Amino acid sequence: MLYKRSSQLFAEASEVLPGGVNSPVRAFKSVGGTPIFVKEAKGAYLYDEDGNRLIDYINSWGPMLLGHAYEPVVTAVVEKAKKGTSFGMPTELETEIAKLAVSMVPGIEKIRFVNSGTEACMSAIRLARGFTNRDKIIKFAGCYHGHSDSFLIQAGSGAITFGAPNSPGVTQGTAKDTLLARYNDLDNVRSLFEANKNEIAAIIVEPVAGNMGCVPPQDGFLQGLRTLCDANGTLLIFDEVMTGFRLSKGGAQELFNVKADIVTFGKVIGGGLPVGAFAARNEIMNYLAPLGPVYQAGTLSGNPLAMAAGLAMLSDINKNEGLFDRLEQKTAYLEKGIREQLEKAGVVFTINRVGSMISVHFDATPVVDFDTAKNGDNETFKKFFHGLLQEGIYIAPSAYETWFITDALSYEDLDNTIAAVGKVAEKL
Ligand code: PMP
Q1: Which residues contact 277 (CB under 8 A, 6 or more apart)?
Q2: Which domains are assigned to the chain?
């Protein structure tokens, strides 16, 4: 496949956008080569500026659970747009989507909409700090909660890809309030509680980590965090920006049967428009302005186009018979196929998967935390990535990302992908 026009567009973009992109991982820096410029997308496919068709395994990093240009979402946005694109005043639509989200997700009574996952997580910790009157938070190495200062400490995703998990510009003052723990290591969390008695406002965790590749929580890990939080008067925040409305209607809380105090959302909840949200029981949410003292606001928050897209998406997911079973079956089928092909070719690998989140690591050691995630062989990953791209298959341009499976994929797409993996694996 040729990427001539993408190369030209990238060169032009690089003159006026830092690195040619508006979000670092898009620049293909860790895999090399030229980022692909998309012209349009439909269902499971991307169509690029060179006329190539790619099967998409990233789906805008998660939101397109039901495929690109999903008709009910597109119609909802187009119809709303004709009636005005932003008011900065309340609309009935905001209540409708809020009611639906509250009915789908366990344990939440009120929800506030924002414009990104970053905002959702940033606001959630401010709320937790205000509510508990404590400053410190625990985050896990390799987890990513957006690019706000408190979280850019041993962050996963793009932050590791660029070798800067700790960003310049984050002050020591901010960094000292973020305590770091090892994912899947309850003893480590316990010792942080012992060393910081009555100081920890919240633990924030990706209930299935998706930003160091996919790393599932080990049995008892999430429940253990719940128990430790309860014993220490600390709030448990599930960052469900990836997992929310993807792993089940009620997200990871429902799947693992563990309740969080605050839940954050992004991606699927906006149906592809810029939406994030955070939610909790009344006691906590009533602490937020204008009811309570913790301030949080947004000119475009609850924007009618974004809410229309989100409502269309969540309504569909809510009544979409068998959706999560189908996603599980399709992704399990893909996993099995990839395993067989890589084994046949004698490639050393580990695959992690939860529902429709999956990633392939090129290392034999089980991947359970940030350290084991970093063991992956990046040179093999690069070859794998570019090999698949030549076969018309688009996976994330970084070894530290999860693939997001969409229901728009057919079994024929999956078979084609598995065959491509076989072809590429022979040359790894
Ligand atoms: N939390 C998680 C778990 C994420 O994966 C991401 C983004 N990939 C974010 C927060 C930040 O969301 P956004 O990029 O919308 O700001």
Answers
A1: 101, 111, 112, 113, 114, 120, 264, 265, 266, 269
A2: 4-66+322-426 (3.90.1150.10), 71-319 (3.40.640.10)
